Amino acid sequence: MYLPSATESAVEKENTTNKEVHRKNKQKQKQDNCMATVDQKVTIDCPWSIYSTIIALTFCIPFNAKHSLLSAGKRKYVQVCVQNLSELCFQLSDNSLKNSADYTDLQLVPLNPESQQVIYSKQSIFFVWELKWTKELPLSLQCLFSVSFCPATSEEQSLTLKPFTYEFQVENFFTLYHVKTEIFPPLGAEYCKTGSLCSLEVSITRLVDLSEVDRDEALTESD
Questions:
Q1: Domain edges within the chain
Q2: Quick one: where's region Disordered (predicted)?
Q3: Is residue 206 within 8 Å of residue 218, measured between CB atoms?
């Protein structure tokens, strides 16, 4: 996303001191914005001139995304976290997660609200899809996440921006361990109460239906 800065006046172009002030103000504007930026330079050549014009452009990256694979029993979920890096508030809509390999026996069922969501400055929003399959899970899953966004302020909602996309790959779908926890009240008591000493029981079971490679890695990591 390109956020244009104020243009220099003719006096500033001729005065080196004013140029330095303008450069410092521009750097201060970047720091105040706190948005991840990418600097690019564009060279413009005109056929009727022997000189080239170099224009500096600063593109701001509004979002950062990361993914994780969640497991609950035999059910598996793909979670995508979108973080707003800017000082602006955006309105998110039309989120989707597609499998680029197009497996016919695999479905990505969205568990997200269909309505538009507002993501505030420095806020993170999570999107979750449940994996459903009929035969067996593939060895790897190539995913493409996409979400449309626009500034949340009414005067800037007319801006046409391309959807934010995030491509990632998920591997090793195997569930290595099953974890179960339970809290018990003290002996002779029916419920757990504040101030009473209760016991916590944690059961960790390594699943046996693993491939040879995954079984060796599980044994090595747990040791």
A1: 62-171
A2: 1-30
A3: yes
Structurally, at CATH architecture level, domain 62-171 sits in: Sandwich (2.60)
Q: What is the pLDDT of residues 63-90, one digit of tens each?
A: 999 999 988 877 899 999 999 988 888 9
Q: What is the pTM of this model?
A: 0.65
